[in-house]
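Quarterly update from the structural biology core.
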Amino acid sequence: MMLILALIYIAIAFGMLVALAAMILKIGSLLGECPAARQAARAAAVTIATGFCAIGAGGVALIGGALPLVQSEPAAGLMVALGLAALCLGLGFTHAVGTLRAVVKDAPAGTAA
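Predicted structure, tokenized:
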């Protein structure tokens, strides 16, 4: 039973991670349509999404490592783990998008392609 819950957690948590990373890249490509900061936005989006994935995957793995500690109530433990992963990934996403906006705002005028 615990193995099934762990696989469910991994599928959902890493699915959230991939979806948020794709959103960062999409926001970066939309910001890249601005002629004043085109190159800065695209480069920053890739860099920020990569960092988000690395840190997010580590967080998802750490939270998943705590699943065996709640063997008495595995379904409740799964919900707590997924909620904590969603909270952490959401906070990381907010910070990543804020960093992307700051990079685009501070981009020098000479970066237009």
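The chain is about 80% helix and 0% strand.
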